[in-house]
Amino acid sequence: MTDVTVDGEHPVVDVRVLAAVIDEAPTPLWVIAADGNVQLVNQAAITVLGHSTVSDLVGRPSHRTLHGHYPDGSEYPQDQCPIVGGNGPRSQTGTEWFTARSGRPLPVVWSTRRLGLTGMTLLSFEDASDRVAGEKQRSIWNSRTIARSADNLGCRSRSALRDELMRHIHKSFRDPAFSVATLAHAGHLSVRSVQVLFAEVHRAPGDEIRAARMNFAQRLLERGSTVRSACYDSGFRDPGTFARAFRRHFGDSPTGYRQRLTASARTSAE
Q: Which of 203, 224, 242 is the last residue of a domain?
């Protein structure tokens, strides 16, 4: 890569050259601008994270786009992220959980390098799913054990199984493909068995999935997310479906809800 020099000693990266280089790289590469937004990204990174085009990513806040929330859905504060921020060592490496476009948590191994005086950071990463395969198998075994025990050990075990299914809902609801059928598959149960388990406590698994998505979207809007970001980040495939579901759940459109929040905040400030 060709550098332009300042005073003969401090390199400043030529962004056009950098863009051409990362486009050809087989390794997922991601360039974070000085303001923390995504500046450049290559096709390998787009593919690994499940996005469609560069325009899905460039200009968005890098931390929030990569992993604004932990795998359990709780917020991941940017000031705790070792990747975004230019005050650390020039080069760093580590392991993290990123979030794929589908909402699926993705374990990665990453490294960063600050680029001259530009304030930019070059991030490279790779999918480390194989490294946690053993942990996933243990989780599957535990789910199977609970499912097999439910019919034999009475109400307490059925309650434990419902709790396990609820944990899976709160872990996976951001995936647009997640449904009652995939929930049942994860618990090694039939869809009918899952419905019966929830009906015993006057609940429905589909309602629980929708409620998880709606409540998460509401929190995102309250934190300042756009309606479009709240839609996709909470597990909806398109804004129209999201708007209709939000109105049914909260009695207002997401746009109207966000406008009321903004007006309330403005009034409080005055």
A: 203
Same domain, 122 and 138: no
Task: Count how many domains the chain has.
Answer: 3
Q: What is the pLDDT along the chain (270 residues), one digit of tens a residue?
A: 334 343 444 445 566 777 777 877 888 999 998 888 998 999 889 888 888 888 888 889 999 889 887 766 667 888 878 887 545 556 788 888 888 887 778 888 889 888 776 678 889 999 887 765 545 444 444 444 444 444 443 444 788 889 999 999 999 999 999 999 989 888 888 888 888 889 888 899 999 999 999 999 999 999 999 999 999 999 999 999 999 999 999 999 999 999 988 887 777 665
> Can you list the pairs that 196-200 forms with residues at least 24 positions away whose Cβ atoms lie under 8 Å?
197/150, 197/158, 197/161, 197/162, 197/165, 198/162, 198/165, 200/158, 200/162
Helix 205-222, helix 254-269: angle, nearest 10 = 40
**Tokens linked to 126:** 């790779």
Question: Quick one: which of 195, 238, 246 has its CA closest to 220?
Answer: 246
Burial bucket for residue 235 (CB in 10 Å: 0-12, 13-18, 19+): buried
Residue the block writes with tokens 């970001």: 229
162: left (phi over 0), alpha (psi -120 to 50) or beta: alpha
Residue 214 belongs to domain spanning: 210-269
Q: Answer yes or no: are the C-beta atoms of 46 and 53 closer than 8 Å.
A: yes
**159 shares its domain with 216:** no
Helical ranges in the chain per DSSP H: 15-24, 43-49, 62-67, 133-153, 155-172, 180-186, 191-199, 205-222, 227-233, 239-250, 254-269
